[in-house]
Structure to design on (129 residues):
């Protein structure tokens, strides 16, 4: 008859009573979680463009739903005067137009700044070569 071992069928070797990993294991484990260090730090899963695109689409859909709810809850008409013209539009739509105008202005300012930095970097590169 065989002597009893610390292994049960189909379960692999057990860790010693102190919870320490035997030194024969080629992969060291993280002390806190008992997982390999790369997995414990979250480096076992790589980020992909498809995953980022999916996340962006989900966030975009949630923002659109929130905007739709906001507009539907603010249907009171307001008079919008622009120079000599007068428009009657729902309040939610007016605020949405204002937010879009602000976003466009910020995008234009950011684009100009990016062009400015790119031009300075190209000038610096020409001076160093």
């Amino acid at each position: 008859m065989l002597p009893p071992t610390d292994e049960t069928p189909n379960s692999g070797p057990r860790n010693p009573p102190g919870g320490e990993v035997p030194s024969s294991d080629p992969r060291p484990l993280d002390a806190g979680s008992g997982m390999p260090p790369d997995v414990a730090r979250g480096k076992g899963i790589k980020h992909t463009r498809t995953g980022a695109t999916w996340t962006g689409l989900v966030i975009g859909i949630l923002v659109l739903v929130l905007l739709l709810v906001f507009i539907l809850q603010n249907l009171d008409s307001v008079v919008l005067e622009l120079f000599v013209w007068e428009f009657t539009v729902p309040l939610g739509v007016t605020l949405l137009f204002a937010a879009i105008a602000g976003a466009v202005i910020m995008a234009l300012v950011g684009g100009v700044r990016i062009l400015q930095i790119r031009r300075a970097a190209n000038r610096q590169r020409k001076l160093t070569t």
